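Readers of this paper often ask what the protein records in our data store actually look like. The remainder of this section carries one protein's record, kept here as part of the documentation.

:::
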Amino acid sequence: MGILQNTQEEYYTGNNLGNYQFTSLEDVINQFMIAYVGEEKIISKANRTDVQFHAMRSLAELSFDTFKSVKSQEIELPPSLIMPLPHDYVNYTRVLSVDNSGIKHPLYPTKHTQNPFKILQNDDKSYDFTYPSDALLIDSNFTDNANVRTAGTPWIKNSTFNLGTDDISVIGQVLTFEHSKNAPVPGTSDKTSRAYAVYQEIDVTDVDFLDLQVIGSSAAAEAGQKGVGTLRVGISALTFPGFDTFRIQVTNPNKTTNGSINNTNAIFDVFTQDGDRALLTFNDGLETFSTQTLTNVDVSLYDTVYVLITSFIENFTGTSTNSFNKVDDITLTIDAISSTLQDGGESTTWSRYKSHRPNENIQHDYDYNDHVFEANVGRRYGIEPSHAQDNGSYYIDNLRGNIHFSSNLSGQTIVLDYISDSLGTDDEMQVHKFAEEAMYKSIIYAILSTRMRTPEYIVRRFKKEKFAAIRKAKLRLSNIKLEEITQIFRGKSKQIKH
C-alpha cells in the first residue's frame, strides 16, 4: 500500500514541494516504538517520553554535521553594518554578498578585530563606577511613538478600555494626552474626562537618590465647559493599599470600583529626603511648556520604582473640543556608585573598524568562467591567503548576537547560510530519508547505553551500528555525482600530487 496521502494535483498546486524526501520526527518516533520496542526485541519496554527525548537529541546532533544546511537569510545591509543572528542560529556555513548579476561572492571572517565591552573610565583613565544618568530611563525624550504601547515597550499606557476620541501618543517627539468628555459616571450625573497614565519601570538597585526634571504643559480651561488640565509626573513604587500591582486600566477618577487613585497625589508613594511626595504638577492652563525640577528623591529602600505620568481634565462637563496635556522631556539625574563595571558605550575597536574603508583591488575584466580578476594575475606573491580577496570581511559578536561587516559592504545584499538544530518549529522537525536509519540507530544506542544491566557487548554493538549508519548517511547526503565531477575536470590539465 502506497504511503502518498495526496494526489498529484494537490501536490503540484500546494506549498509542500519536495517534502517526500523527509520523514517527520513524530513518524520516526512512532515507527521506532513499533519496530524496536516490545517482546522478543532488544528493548523490551521503553517510555515514549524517553524515546522522544533521545530522538530530539539525535536530530540536533545529526543537524550539525550530517544533514545538509538548507536555512538561509538575505538582507540589505543597513548603514549600521550590523546583521542580527537568526533566532534559531547555531552556527554559520557561509556568509556571502550578491552583486548586480546575482552572483554570490564569499565573504571571509577576520580574526584580527572584535567588539569588546568598553569600560567607562575617568579622565585619569581609572575605572569610573558612577552610575550613568541615562542608564535608568529609556527614550526619556519620546523620540518614537513605537516606544509608547500597551505592553512590551519602555513606556506602558492604558489598554483595557475604549478610548473613543481620546488618545495617548507621541506627536513630534512630545507625549500627548488627548482628552474628551465621557459618559456620566455610573450612579451619578457627573461627566468627566478619564484619568490616563503612562509609566516605565526603572531599576534603582544601586541608587539612593534621584533628581527629576520635567518639561510639560497643561491644557487651558473653558468657562462652563471644562477646567484646566492636570498633568502629574513623579516617582512611584505603586505599592499603595488595595493594589497588589498597578492596574492601569482603572482610569476614571470618580469610579469607586477597585478604588481608582489615578487622579490623586496618593498614587505617588515615594518621597523626597525632606518628606515631600516625589511629584511635579502642571496645572497652570497656559498651554505653554515650562520646566519643573524635583531633587533628592529617596529610593534607597527600593530595587524597582516607576516613572509615572498621569493626565486629567478637571470638570469636563460640556461638549467642548478636546484638551491636550503634554510632556516634552524627562531627565533623571543620579549620583550613585555601582558595584559593577559601567558600560562606556560603543567600543573604539568596532567604531574604528566600521569607519575604515578597506583597501580594495581595482576590479577589471572579471570573468565568470574562470573567476579571475585580470588585474590581479601574478600580483599576489607573498600575500596572506586569508587577505587575498576584496569582497569584504565580517566577524560575529556572539555576546550580543550580531554579525559586524566592513564598511565597503554597506547597502549590499548579504546572504547568510546557517545551521540550526532542527528543533525550532514542528514543521522543521523532520529527517531526510537517507538518514532515517541513522536516527533509529542513534536512538537505540542512546537508550541502551543509559540503562543499567545492559550487557556491554550489546552497547558496543549498537555503538558501532550507530556510527556506521551515520557514515552511510553522510555519503548519501553528500550528493556526489560522477558526471558532474568528470565535467569539471574535462579538458583541464591538472597535476594531482600524492
Summary: The longest strand covers residues 323-334. The chain has three domains: 23-67+424-477, 72-111+352-419, 133-334.
